[in-house]
Amino acid sequence: MQLTIEDATELAVRVLTRYGMPQRYAAMVAEHLVDAALSGHEFASLARLPTLAKLLQDRPPAGEIRVVKETANSALIDGGDNIAYAVSVIAMDKAIEICRKSGIAMVSAYNTWFSGRLAYYVERAARQGFIGIHCMHGTARTAPFGGMEALLGTNPIAIAFPSADEPVIIDMSMSATTHGAANLAKAKGETLPAGLAIDSSGRPTVDPDAALKGAFLAWGGHRGYGISLAVQLLGMLAGSEPVIGDDSRFGQFYLVIDPELVMPREQYHARVSELKKIIKASRPAPGVEKVRVPGENSLAHRQRARDAGAAAEVHVDDTIYARIRELLN
Amino acid sequence: MQLTIEDATELAVRVLTRYGMPQRYAAMVAEHLVDAALSGHEFASLARLPTLAKLLQDRPPAGEIRVVKETANSALIDGGDNIAYAVSVIAMDKAIEICRKSGIAMVSAYNTWFSGRLAYYVERAARQGFIGIHCMHGTARTAPFGGMEALLGTNPIAIAFPSADEPVIIDMSMSATTHGAANLAKAKGETLPAGLAIDSSGRPTVDPDAALKGAFLAWGGHRGYGISLAVQLLGMLAGSEPVIGDDSRFGQFYLVIDPELVMPREQYHARVSELKKIIKASRPAPGVEKVRVPGENSLAHRQRARDAGAAAEVHVDDTIYARIRELLN
Predict the structure, then answer these.
(1) I need a labelling partner for A170 at 20 to 30 A (CA). Which of A182, B45, B58, B327 fits?
(2) In this predicted complex, what is the ipTM?
């Protein structure tokens, strides 16, 4: 199914409001989902609507997203039990607003849950000329290195650097696989690649159901475990419990830095562009076509969609489209 | 060879000042080297002196370490071409000083080179109740993922979190191996483990000499490459060149955060302790004795040395001790 941007946005808003999300927050989520499609991430796009509808259905109505504390270089946000897709836009924009005055800003957000591509939020900072960092402590699904209990979230982190042209955008989960990927494999009756998860006895498993009952492995052994733990501890600044047992009360961390604090902003942007250029022009390893800079593919994908203008289309898998329509019955 | 702490410190200061390092900075480096021994990192201890002497020998006399710019929440430091062992103590302490007033502080340092265990600096912040983050952009020795040219530093990063008891200290290099390890293997006539480096034609190599002429691999594939690139770009805030060709003009980044900005400090400390306790009490994977928290072993090692009091000793390999003595001839 091919939808226009307008139709895809409207469809997403209709589903989300139907399941109780306030209109203004649903508009934010819809914009994120459509952007994911335009950036080449179909799985993070409208395909998420059935999951989001299910998560919304089980919840009491959300409140307002409110800044509950603010200093010259920080803010604390109560997400009002709203989805993090909306909370993170408001939190990142608050961090950017504070950074514009003070040069650096840290924002924490609590009372929120579930989010999409973290790249989406940090890019907002980079588009303003700032460095944006965001990470999230969520539901415990990952075992610490050497352990077998799910104590760490999948703990994604994203960092965006502004340049004289397109930003560098790094976005990764710190678990070897994700909840979405395991659920998708389970739904399709497929197995997981080897080495990503353990069952509840701590034995390696490729069965997604056993993995969901057991734990994902931390990506990258003891070093990946270290970074995952750092993400969790930064998220906990928002007051999240050390181990999050259900799909709520995540801990969100946002940091925005203006390079101007220590060097002329435009000079920094030029240097970032220069490093990108050097990397992209460097010799690829045997068998590799081209050396890439993180974020490059998503940005190019979106640019092609923008170039297409009104003709740009959002692709939705036919089976998933049928399921989305059913959500409106 | 077993030395008392006093004798080991004095020996290090004598070597460093002999090769031109100002006395007050040599004292800082010596304290770091001795602490590395007490924390169980013999390789990062007095064994470094021959390398440091050689690096000092080739340099003009260093100047002063000076704060050249300071705002309410940041500082920029000119390292005066001093070794980063000294610059990083001064930079981290400046960040802590600013953080105490404003709740968050970023410091960048330029005109400096070579450093030891980054854990040493971030621990200073955690001991004051703050979160400390430090990373360093150094000499290009690592290929980007998919590439074969050495464009990235080994780009270490360290993060320390304060707790109600001992801090969590994460410290890792973002390259698959380090310059020190490759040089050591070369000196011993040993090979490197497979999968850590490529030769100058981009082919995998276990020959340390070929690796030093080629490039180390980024640790952890495309995700490790992403984090390494982020470290490089944060370091470049200090004005370091995008790719550093020789052993000088590194870019150093320090960030200190007071949890009090968003939650009561003691409450945060208690939560960090709680997470540590949960992880350490969790079931280990089959074949693993105990689940560990990053930094735990080094801190326990140092505690045993402290408990020994005046009887604590610094072990130096006999061959290395002989080489150190020769440096004083």
Answers:
(1) A182
(2) 0.96
Which residue from A minimizes the CA distance to B226? A170
Give domain A66-175+218-261's CATH architecture.
Answer: 2-Layer Sandwich (3.30)
Residue B159 distance to chain A (closest CA, Å): 7
The pLDDT value recorded for residue A188 is 82
Chain-chain contact of B233 with A69 (C-beta, under 8 angstroms): no
The CATH number for B2-59+301-326, chosen from 1.10.10.10, 1.10.1530.10, 3.40.50.150, 3.30.420.40, is 1.10.1530.10
- Measured between beta carbons, which residues in chain B are less than 8 angstroms from residue A219? 220, 223
Closest Cα to residue A148, out of A226, A230, A205? A205
Q: Are B253 and B235 in contact (CB under 8 A)?
A: yes
- How far is it, in rounded angstroms, from Cα A103 to Cα A109? 20
- Chain segment B118-174, per-residue pLDDT in tens: 999 999 999 999 999 999 999 999 999 999 999 999 999 999 999 999 999 999 999
Contacts of A223 in chain B (CB under 8 A): 172, 219-220, 224
B294 to chain A, closest Cα gap in Å: 7
Taking Cα atoms as reference points, which of B167, B148, B150, B151 lies closest to residue B159? B167
What does A209-237 look like in DSSP terms, one character per residue? HHHHHSEEEBTTHHHHHHHHHHHHHHHGG
Give the percent of chain B with pLDDT over 90.
89
Closest chain B residue by Cα to residue A198 = B285
Q: Do B239 and A170 count as a contact with CB atoms less than 8 A apart?
A: no
Contact: A261, B73; criterion CB under 8 Å: yes
Asked if A262 and B220 come within 8 Å (Cβ–Cβ), the reply is no
Out of B69, B203, B233, whose CB is closest to A262?
B69
Give the minimum alpha-carbon distance from B10 to chain A in angstroms, rounded to a whole number: 35
- Cβ-Cβ contacts under 8 Å for A311 (sequence gap 6 or more): none
> Tokens 């602490």, residue?
B35
Buried b (16+ CB within 10 A) or exposed e, B292-313: bbbbbebbeebeebeeeeeebb
Smallest Cβ distance to B278: which of A234, A237, A242?
A242
- pLDDT recorded at residue B183: 84
pLDDT level of residue A246 (50, 70, 90 thresholds): confident
Per CB-CB distance under 8 Å, the chain A contacts of B219 are 220, 223
Element (H, E) at A252: strand A251-257
Q: What are the domain boundaries of chain B? A: 2-59+301-326, 66-175+218-261
- The answer to whether residue A43 scores a pLDDT higher than 90 is no
pLDDT in tens, B42-95: 889 999 999 999 999 988 889 999 999 999 999 999 999 999 999 999 999 999
* Best B70, B161, B171, B223 residue to mutate vs chain A (most A CBs within 10 Å): B223
B19-42: pLDDT as tens digits: 999 999 999 999 999 999 999 998
Q: Given an 8 Å threshold on Cβ–Cβ distance, is A226 in contact with B294?
A: yes
